[in-house]
Every structure is written in C-alpha cells, then in structure tokens.
Amino acid sequence: MKRFATLFIFLATLGTLVKPVFADDAAARAIASKLIDMTRGKESIRAGFDTVINGVISNMQAHGLPQAGVDEIKAAVDKWYSSEINFEDIRPKMIDAYVKDFSADELKQILDFYKTPVGQKAINEMPDVMRQGAVIAQDYTKEKIPDLNTALTPILAKYRDQMQGGPSDGSSGGAPPASAPAPPGN
After folding, report:
1. Residue 6 — very low, low, confident or very high, per pLDDT cuts 50/70/90?
2. Which one-letter DSSP state was computed for residue 180?
3. Can you give the pTM of this predicted structure?
4. Long-range contacts of 102-108 (CB under 8 A, 24+ apart)
5. How many domains does the chain have?
6. Do both 45 and 7 map to the same domain?
C-alpha cells in the first residue's frame, strides 16, 4: 500500500508539472492562429505561390510562349489552386512553426505589436517589401550567372557521361564497341 501511495504522489506531482506546459502550448497555438489570421496568412501563401508561378510564366514568355498560352496556364493554375489547396490543411503546420520558436508570451507580444498602427502598416507593406527584395536579389544574381556558368561548365563536362547514364571511363558512350557481337535476331 505504501508503494501505491508513493506512486500516486509521484504521479500527482508530475501532473502539476506537465499541465502548465500543455496549457502554455494551447495558449501559444491559439495566439499563433490569431497571428496567422491577422497577418493574412492565407493570402500570403497564395501571393507567394503566384510570385513563383509568374516567374515561371515570365521565363516561358522569354522563350516564346504567346499571350494565349500565358492566359491558359494562368487559368489552369488558378483552377487547380482553388480546387486543390485548402489553407486549413496548412494552418496547423504554420502554427507548429510559430510555437516551435516562440513562447505564448512572445507570441502575445508580437500580436500586440501587430495591433498597433506601425504593426498594421507592417502587415500591409511587408509583402511588397519582401517581393521587391526578391526581385532585387534575383536581378543581382542574374548578373552573376555568367560567372557561375563559367565555373560550372568544366565540372559538368567532366561528369557529362555519368549524368547521361553513359560510361564513366571518358569514352563516347552509348554505342557498343565495334568488336562487340551484334544482338541476337539481327
């Protein structure tokens, strides 16, 4: 009986230690969900997706895709996104990301900031600032690509046959040597 009493006290004590962690986690998750809504998480996901797709489409246009093709691709992507992407499937993972790095108190402070005029301005303006930053980085990197290509060309040439599934001995690959017997049936 004494062992049972000791076990009971141990479990009761453990329970008082565990509950605050779960309570804090639940509070953090609730606040994170509010943050996602306040910062327009659903719209941000779509805007990010559209930015990537528009970059791909611009690249296709640069390689000759006519406007009719652009319009068809955009319509197909929009239809697919609308029918296949459910933000509520993404929300729990976004909440996980918040609570992994922030406590409930920190999330509350962030939420309080976003309620201020500067916080509201940040919500409204930061997506555009981030897009501008991405374009700046892309344009800057684009200028540097020729130098990267120069550095990579000899490396890729060295491994070309292996990459194409050919022999690694440096031979031309593909065709059997002249002395190899012909396959049966020829």
Report:
1. low
2. S
3. 0.59
4. 102/28, 102/32, 103/24, 103/28, 104/24, 104/25, 104/27, 104/28, 104/31, 107/28, 107/31, 107/32, 107/35, 108/31
5. 2
6. yes
